[in-house]
Amino acid sequence: MDYGLENTTSSSWITAIERPFMYDYLNGDEDTQFGVNIKHSGDNYGLMAQVATYEDKYESDDNNELYGYTLRAHWAPYLNGTDVIHLAANYHNSEADDERARARTRMGIRSDNDFRLTLGDVTVADKDNEWVLESGAQFGAFRAQAEYFQRQISGETAGGANSDVDISGYYGQVSYMFNGVRQYKAADGKWDKPDNMNGSWEIFARYESSTVDSDANAIPANLGIAGLVADDASKEFETKAMVLGVNYFVNPAVRVSLNYVDYEVDNLDTSSQVNGEDVQDDGKAIVGRLQYVF
Q1: Do the beta carbons of residue 176 and residue 140 sit within 8 Å?
Q2: Angle of CA points 2, 238, 117, to nearest 5°
Q3: What whole-number distance in Å separates Cα of residue 14 and Cα of residue 207?
Q4: 119: which of 8, 217, 222, 252 is 20 to 30 A away, CA to CA?
């Protein structure tokens, strides 16, 4: 599903090992069961519209289907070979009808148990829409991009009390490639593999920040893990991360990546414990990947 700049780019050729965690908070890229997708592309632009049904993980007697619609428009006002300026906008509406909607994130780090922070949970949602703005530019070996999003969820708890979650955030990323240049697919509005993949290197830095404003009724008793609780139900959750990394393209089939992630989550109760360990509201990780493309 074409949705967002870094999300539209193939997972084989995204810059970091993990996409920006803002996509954890969004629904527009979900896999569909069936639907209709219409796309029109020109030399430097594209328009896409989709109406589709999704698998409903929270099926009930009153609701056994989940559908929504998605729009994306991209445009490259400047395009000269691999030099490009990219702009785009996306919109997704889940057409919520008593579905459950949550704000969850892995913060760019995957665990064996696939733990995710759950910072908002609307049990019976009647509104769930979101939009994303994209921008990117590449001149020679230097590339920069940024995206901004907002998502609004409103509804009720199982007991009928009002429950709302507002999420917004952005990231900014810069990269530089040695002995190669990222290709750009103008018809799809996305980055592609480097033009030279025999010994090329890429270094990058990315800063991410998102805010989850959940009212007291939408904050779960445990934030995805038993014992992990909010410090103050009247405050917002702030999730931030700095990601530094390097990619080495050995040849067209082999890529080696190493990422350093430094993250922070505001409004966690650090006086509580999980499995006998004190809760920390920040952390660091080093993640590596050896990739072989068939």
Answers
A1: no
A2: 70
A3: 16
A4: 8
Is pTM beyond 0.85? Reply is: yes
**Domains with residue ranges and CATH for the chain:** 5-292 (2.40.160.10)
Phi, psi at residue 216, to the nearest 5°?
Answer: -55, -35
Q: What residues contact residue 2 under an 8 Å CB cut-off, 6+ apart? A: 8, 39, 46, 48, 72, 188, 189, 190
Calpha distance 19→6 (Å, rounded): 7
Q: How many residues are listed for the chain in this entry?
A: 294
Q: Are strands 162-178 and 190-194 parallel, antiparallel or unpaired?
A: unpaired
* pLDDT single digits (tens) 78-117: 999 999 999 999 999 988 888 889 999 999 888 777 889 9
DSSP letter string, 141-190? TEEEEEEEEEEEEEEE-TTS-EEEEEEEEEEEEEEEEES--EEEETTTTE
Q: Which residues pair with 163 in a beta bridge?
A: 155
Give tens-digit pLDDT for 28-38: 888 788 899 99
Query: What residues are paired with 120 via a beta bridge?
Result: 103
